[in-house]
Write a structure and sequence with these properties.
Its main location: membrane. α27 links the parallel β21 and β22. This protein is of the alpha/beta class. The longest helix has 28 residues. The chain is globular and about 100 Å long. The strands form five sheets. The chain has a seven-stranded mixed sheet with strand order 15-13-11-10-9-23-24. The chain is about 45% helix and about 15% strand. The protein has 29 helices and 24 strands. It folds into five domains: about 80 residues, no CATH class; about 110 residues, OB fold (Dihydrolipoamide Acetyltransferase, E2P); about 260 residues, no CATH class; about 35 residues, no CATH class; about 240 residues, 4-Layer Sandwich (Metallo-beta-lactamase, Chain A).
Length: about 775
């Protein structure tokens, strides 16, 4: 008996492979990130108890429990510090420091500037980091400065849609506890304190702009030197996205590896010139240590932003593994790096950059290590680039809903170019800081950067359909990843034949069925409207939501991702109710990312006119307004009626005058099961006669959460409540999906109720 117990205890204490431990740790973190609410303390305590008893799976269970505990603890800290919703809109004077390189957008009309920056309050009663917007300011804002700001504070809240960008999750990753706008401001009398690294970065950016001017070369140089991307515009990011070169611009693992690699070869060569030094310390060991120090310095220059810190941890672990001659086991080194990152920042698992970086490094090791004979450098570089292009396709499709076929070709030139320019740029910056004689080198590097960008822009302009929008289901993505691995297996392995069908799974058409033959989804686009109507084989988009210059674009961030998630790449019809930005702003992005077959009401489509009608799959669609008379902007909105398994009325932004015409001309046609409230629930719409004529069972108000217009107005809500209509606000509920269930009854699914995670604000007005 004693021997059996001793054997059991010995097996319980056998070391477990670190890769399995990190896998268990990751499972614990991901489990918490999938929850709608954080687990209570009692559950966490019960989860940790099995790790205290010696049993065979104790180590793995302990790693899993550690992941759960760390993520839950960090999550609760964030929620406790976040600005509460019941204090939304409160105005306070706040002393603090500008804790980021500020983004500046000059406004041509007034000569003033719009600023956006992270603000670190000095008071512990406020969240540690605020995302602040300062509109129409005459002031020049600098990183590291102390300011006293009168702020209107807003609770964290963003749009929530299937497949759409999770703004609240993005704020979580950055540790932002509240949003704010500046109403009044004064510089602190006692001046600036600390933040010397941030101020050094600001001086470098200012020096670049002074020397290179307000040019794209200066913006690219600032991005590659100190990680400041505020000078790059949406059009620039589109160019990088379509050419697959975004990873080269924002400082991340690639940039750190380039700088560290350059330092390694330089230090190794220099150390080798002194034989006595090599006897005391081998040149390779010295170069490894020195390259690590240089990488830390570069990360310091980039402000230790979260992506840079994660990349630095991975790089330092790999350097340490090489120093102790263990790089022949790269997966073990990567496991250590992954585990450290998750323990340091469990929310990093929400970042696409983390997954892409580790996938890229793993792919490089997979292709380049373990070969029986060394390949020629150019052939190895080509093999690595091709494998990266294949292996990263599934991750790109999952995170970005598309891929670019240009990436492998452009990167064959862009990667070596940036690999040379980045160290040169840092050396030129250092030389210019010492003496102005280095300015020509800086200008030369800037010129090459500008020419490189023009090459990318030329590729985007002339390459046919370079960006391929798609969003395959998860099983297809996993099969595609498996297929990419199979392609690069050694010759003669029988499984290689399966690579083609596995990769082909990514291209299979996907179409989510429409139960009942008709469904409507009112997307949450903030204060705006975007409605998707589907029949069995057709798709209609009624409005595309708002878009703001150098800011949120509902067409790109919400509408297209949702449609691609449903397997829809073709729109049979796009109807733009009228030209206001909150309805038509996202149209350009929708056209760019989807195949739009026909349009009504847009500047390039047919005019919207009463009397037009058509049939899809047994569903009748008819336009009821406007007629040929002149109308105001809102009253000229298209009004669409849909009759099928249930009836829908989509009236755009019509107001009382247009409502009266509809009552006069189409009263019998107004009655509908589902109504989109006119003009987002404004008091100028939804008159008593109109509400009585429509008699909807369900009313959807497409209005932003606590919007400045007060939509939907209380009297309008009361009017619909009086007839017994169920009411939903997209800004509160997230996307609202309406269809018929198996019993034939109308069924409403709200996305914030169904799919929200614990960091998402609750569905409360």
């Amino acid at each position: 008996m004693d021997a059996a117990v001793a054997g059991h205890c010995r097996r319980a204490h056998e070391p477990v492979d670190v890769r399995l431990l990190v896998l268990a740790l990751s499972a614990g973190v991901l489990a918490v990130l999938m929850l709608p609410r954080l687990p209570p303390a009692a559950v966490l305590a019960a989860l940790a108890l099995p790790a205290l008893w010696p049993w065979r799976g104790r180590s793995l269970w302990g790693a899993f429990a550690l992941g759960v505990l760390v993520c839950s603890w960090q999550g609760q800290r964030y929620l406790d510090a976040r600005w509460p919703a019941d204090r939304h809109g409160e105005i306070l004077w706040v002393d603090g420091t500008i804790a980021s390189l500020p983004e500046r957008r000059p406004t041509a009309e007034s000569g003033r500037s719009d600023w956006r920056f992270v603000f670190a309050p000095h008071s512990s009663a406020l969240p540690r980091r605020l995302r602040v917007s300062w509109y129409q300011s005459d002031e020049i804002v600098m990183a590291g400065e102390c300011w006293r700001l009168q702020l209107k504070l807003r609770a964290v809240h963003g749009s929530l849609n299937p497949g759409g960008f999770d703004y609240e999750g993005w704020l979580l990753r950055d540790g932002i506890g509240a949003l704010a706008t500046v109403r009044e401001a004064h510089r602190c009398e006692d001046g600036d304190r600390g933040h010397w690294i941030l101020r050094l970065r600001q001086r470098i950016v200012d020096r670049l702009r002074a020397e290179l001017g307000d040019t794209r070369a200066a913006a690219l140089a600032a991005a590659l030197t100190v990680g400041d991307t505020s000078g790059l515009r949406d059009a620039d990011w589109r160019t990088f996205r379509v050419t697959g070169t975004t990873h080269l611009i924002a400082i991340s693992g690639f940039n750190l590896a380039i700088v560290a690699g350059f330092a390694f070869f330089l230090l190794r060569w220099g150390w080798s010139l002194w034989p006595r030094l090599c006897l005391a310390l081998p040149a390779q060991r010295f170069a490894l240590a020195g390259s690590g120090v240089v990488a830390v310095g570069y990360a310091l220059l980039a402000g230790f932003e979260a992506p840079v810190t994660r990349a630095l941890i991975m790089l330092l672990v790999l350097i340490a593994s090489a120093a102790v001659h263990r790089l022949h086991e790269p997966t073990r080194a990567l496991a250590y790096a992954w585990g450290l990152i998750l323990l340091f920042d469990p929310f990093a698992a929400l970042s696409p950059g983390l997954w892409l970086s580790f996938a890229a490094v793993t792919a490089i090791f997979y292709v380049s290590l373990g070969r029986l004979r060394a390949e020629r450098p150019w052939l190895l570089a080509l093999r690595v680039q091709l494998f990266l292009a294949l292996a990263l396709i599934p991750l790109g499709l999952y995170f970005f809903h598309g891929l670019t076929w240009l990436a492998p070709f452009v990167n064959l030139i862009a990667v070596p170019l940036v690999s040379v320019l980045t160290p040169l740029l840092l050396i030129a910056q250092l030389g210019f800081a010492v003496h102005e004689a280095a300015a020509p080198v800086l200008h030369a590097v800037g010129w090459v950067l500008e020419q490189g960008y023009q090459m990318l822009a030329w590729c985007v302009a002339h390459a046919p359909a370079a960006w391929i929008p798609a969003s395959p289901p998860l099983p297809a993505l996993l099969l595609g990843l498996f297929g990419a691995v199979l392609v690069f297996l050694p010759r003669g392995v029988p499984l290689r034949a399966l690579a083609v069908p596995c990769l082909a799974a990514l291209a299979l058409p996907r179409n989510v069925p429409v139960p009942g033959g008709l469904e409507l989804t009112a997307l949450d686009v903030g204060q705006g409207s975007a409605i998707v109507v589907r029949t069995r084989s057709h798709t209609l988009l009624f409005d595309a939501g708002p878009a703001y210059e150098e800011g949120f674009d509902a067409g790109r961030s919400v509408v297209a991702p949702y449609l691609l998630k449903q397997g829809i790449r073709r729109l049979d019809l796009l109807i733009v109710s009228h030209g206001d930005n909150d309805h038509a702003g996202g149209v350009s992005a929708v056209r760019e990312l989807l195949d739009v077959r026909a349009e009504i009401g847009s500047e390039t489509g047919k005019p919207c006119m009463d009397g037009q009608s058509w049939d899809w799959d047994g569903v009748h669609l008819q336009l009821l307004h406007p007629d040929g008379r002149p109308w105001s902007d809102n009253d000229r909105s298209c009004v669409l009626r849909i009759d099928g398994p249930f009836s829908i009325l989509l009236p755009g932004d019509i107001e009382r005058r247009a409502e009266r015409r509809l009552l006069d001309m189409h009263r019998p046609r107004l009655r509908a099961d589902v109504l989109l409230s006119p003009h987002h629930g404004s008091r100028s719409s939804s008159g008593a006669d109109f509400v009585s004529a429509v008699q909807p069972q369900i009313v959807v108000h497409t209005a932003g959460w606590r919007n400045r217009f007060g939509h939907p107005r209380a009297e309008v809500v009361a009017r619909y409540a009086a007839i017994g209509a169920a009411q939903y606000i997209t800004g509160v509920e997230g996307a609202v999906h309406i269809g018929r269930d198996a019993s034939g009854r109308l069924r409403v699914v709200t996305w914030r109720q169904r799919a929200a995670r614990w960091w998402n604000a609750p569905a409360a007005p």
